[in-house]
Amino acid sequence: MISVEEARARVLAKVRRTGMEVVGLAEGFGRVLAADVVSRVTQPPADVSAMDGYALRAADGMAGASLKVIGAAPAGHPFAGEVGPGEAIRLFTGSFVPAGADAVLLQEDATAADGFVTLNEAAIAGRHIRRAGQDFTAGEVLIAAGRRLTARDVGLAAAGNAPWLSVFRRPRIAILATGDEISLPGEAIGPGGIVSSNSHALAAFVTASGGEAVVLPIAADTLEAVAAGADAARGADMLVTTGGASVGEHDLVQAGLATRGMVLDFWKIAMRPGKPLIFGQVGGMPLLGLPGNPVSSFVCALLFLKPAIEVMSGLPGEAPRTERMPLGAGMKANDQREDYVRAAISHDGVVTPFPVQDSGMLRTLAKADALIRRPAHQVAKAAGEMVEVIRLSDL
Amino acid sequence: MISVEEARARVLAKVRRTGMEVVGLAEGFGRVLAADVVSRVTQPPADVSAMDGYALRAADGMAGASLKVIGAAPAGHPFAGEVGPGEAIRLFTGSFVPAGADAVLLQEDATAADGFVTLNEAAIAGRHIRRAGQDFTAGEVLIAAGRRLTARDVGLAAAGNAPWLSVFRRPRIAILATGDEISLPGEAIGPGGIVSSNSHALAAFVTASGGEAVVLPIAADTLEAVAAGADAARGADMLVTTGGASVGEHDLVQAGLATRGMVLDFWKIAMRPGKPLIFGQVGGMPLLGLPGNPVSSFVCALLFLKPAIEVMSGLPGEAPRTERMPLGAGMKANDQREDYVRAAISHDGVVTPFPVQDSGMLRTLAKADALIRRPAHQVAKAAGEMVEVIRLSDL
Questions:
Q1: Residues on chain B touching A155 (C-beta within 8 angstroms)
Q2: What percent helix, strand, coil does chain A show, rounded to 5?
Q3: From the CB of residue B139, how many other CB atoms can be counted at a distance below 10 Å?
Q4: How far is B57 from chain A, CA to nearest CA, in Å?
Q5: What one-character DSSP code corresponds to residue A176?
Q6: Which of A321, B246, B346, B360 has a CA positioned 20 to 30 A from the CA of residue B223?
Q7: Cβ B126 vs Cβ B132: under 8 Å
Q8: Residue B355: is it exposed, middle or buried by C-beta count within 10 angstroms (0-12/13-18/19+)?
Q9: What's the rounded Cα separation, in Å, for the pair A334 and B280?
Q10: Residue B44 touches partner A, C-beta closer than 8 Å
Q11: What is the nearest CA distance from B84 to chain A, expressed in angstroms?
């Protein structure tokens, strides 16, 4: 048996980034930048007013002074002339500060009448003025390559005048569920049959992780069907199978893929749930064989598929992020296998493992807020002691 | 000035859920269920083996016993006959336990030879058997209406044999940026002009929040242009404007929309950044007028638009979730306005406010991991003291 850490490192060593593509800014949200976003503009482009008010010379800015209002400069309509001594210009948030002016009087500190404005408070040089380039200047890197774009990043790229973005292509993940016993939802269910949950759970998982899922038809338990699935996956960035990763005679994924010249590794991983994992490659396409059990399949996807998709997407690809939380109930000592325990997080941040952890129970997986990660040989923990927790959120 | 809490309550009181639509299971991820998912099947459909091994009668399960293997029952191929005394059936994970059998011998505890299997360990009644319906039974509610579907929920709905899902239609949010000074990225920038960041930042924000964004052309600062924008928004579930929500003479959103018979509220909210907010309604369409400043616009979107989209999507619609974290640097006492302070979260969970908080600085917004929420009149805080934090994640 190998450790989770080692298995993940071996998977990540074999997957590669996808190529670049150009997308419109409006399609950029959630994509991973393949090239820096460099600003084409300076922001603000000139000294601008941070408030509604009046531009004037600071030398005229004594409280009680009265200045002649010689024009207005709404945002987008800069004042063409210059503000001279004894003069003021009406302006608004975002208005360019006109030549000659170096102070802004707030509108609420001003009394305007008959073409003049009287200062009820002193106006101080530079106050309420945003300097040209205060946010960024043309030529600066606004967002570095390798970042997954947030909504705010999209706004920042827009402000930097970037209508197009170079991003990594979303990795295409082909999903091949195998097994004579499974049908897709709504199809006829054979005797001894069940409905396949893995294909579409994994497809959603791939979407949530930033990939593009290609769901292949279910493969029956024959060498030919599994091989045909591998053929159908051609052009994908990775093939993910479920089922057939155990050691029973009827587990045909390894044998079926071997007929297509795949080099396969089979690992037993020191973890629970989800011990057996297939990993290999044919041509340029990596293959990840997950267990057929839906809970094991999900946990393995979280530990191995998600970071693999991240690496293919141009991100670092790390172990799931953990947080430390106090336990709501005690847990027995752990054995030699790293354990991922379905659990609920209370409103006040206490994590409580579900009492029954049978890996056949998909419902408790769906109900879980988090997995408690228990390292191998972890000692027993009492309620209130801290444990490491992986939030499942939208996964 | 009204409080953030009161403004949010007033917005949420006026928005309504969208209608239902039916989507395929494969499109269900991230959608909000409008009707319960009720299982059409029982899972497991019968008692099944949890392991690879042999089915037998517990009465025959003494260590050392030797049983005749009368057949095999791979998953999907149940054994049609009955297991009699002295007999065993080869089975695999997920295989139905055949009639007559009530115990499973693990394969690793068995020695098979010449059509017989010898028990190296005792087999105990019921062990390694998953009972019919252990996960769920036909007719049970698997996922309740009102839940946003995770990848795991999609798997659970599949397992319950649900090829279709009733979900709330994604709310369509029309976005109208206003201002003579703004252009879209890549377009010509006029004198005194800047590039509009709000339209596409908000569109991404709407997508991230579960809505569908409709970006309208930028409206110039005329009554007619703003009114034309409102016309173009017809059929949307909400119109969001940016800019023109201040008190300057050139803020025309209120006046422009009034020409279309909108009933408008204008609120000054006791918050920083982003004081002024317009809210109103015409016909069935609510209107939310955000400030033009991109930082203020984002913070107001987080506080008011996101919960509004959630309510329209069929979710409760709550204030952004906060966590408590220790400060990495001291903060001065707060004034009468609730404050949202851009901040970084370190690897070890310490939150440090950025030293410069000018609301013109979009770049510090994009860099922020979180906003520190400071209630009105909060006393000064020293480094190490706890504050409330809103993580920004993909927003």
A1: 197-198, 200-202, 204, 294, 298, 362, 365-366
A2: 20, 35, 45
A3: 10
A4: 21
A5: E
A6: B360
A7: no
A8: exposed
A9: 58
A10: yes
A11: 21
Is some CB atom of chain A closer than 8 A to the CB atom of B289? no
CA of B348 vs chain A CAs: smallest distance (Å): 10
What confidence tens digit (pLDDT) does each residue in B182-203 have?
Answer: 999 999 998 889 999 999 999 9
Is A132 near chain B, with CB under 8 Å? no
Domains of chain B, start order: 4-17+170-313 (3.40.980.10), 20-40+138-168 (3.90.105.10), 48-130 (2.170.190.11), 323-391 (2.40.340.10)
Q: Please report residues of A whose CB lies closer than 8 A to that of B201.
A: 151-152, 154-156, 158
Residues 301-320 of A with CB under 8 A from B: none
Q: Is B366 within 8 Å of A153 when comparing Cβ atoms?
A: yes
**For residue A93, what are the CA distances in angstroms to A85, B53, B393?**
23, 76, 29
Is the CB of A180 less than 8 angstroms away from the CB of B76?
yes
- In order, the DSSP letters of B290-326 are E-SSHHHHHHHIIIIIHHHHHHHHTS---SPP-EEEE
pLDDT confidence of residue B120: 96
Burial of B382 (0-12, 13-18, 19+ CB in 10 A): exposed
Q: How many CB pairs under 8 A join A and B?
A: 307
Question: Given a cut of 70, is residue B130 above it in pLDDT?
Answer: yes
Could you list the mean pLDDT of each consecutive 10-residue stretch along chain A, which spans 395 residues? 93 95 98 98 95 95 96 91 96 92 95 96 95 96 98 98 98 95 93 93 98 96 92 95 67 85 85 86 87 93 98 96 94 95 94 90 95 96 97 94
Spatial strand order of the sheet with B172-177 comes to B212-215, B172-177, B238-242, B285-290, B276-282, B263-268
Query: Residue B183, exposed/middle/buried by CB under 10 A (0-12, 13-18, 19+)?
Result: middle
């596409």: which residue's tokens? Answer: B200
> How is the beta sheet containing A116-119 ordered, strand by strand?
A103-106, A53-56, A87-91, A66-73, A116-119, A110-113
Q: Which value does ipTM take for this structure?
A: 0.94
Q: CA of A105 to nearest chain B CA: how many angstroms apart?
A: 14
B205 burial type by CB count under 10 A (0-12 exposed, 13-18 middle, 19+ buried): buried
3 state SS of A4 = helix
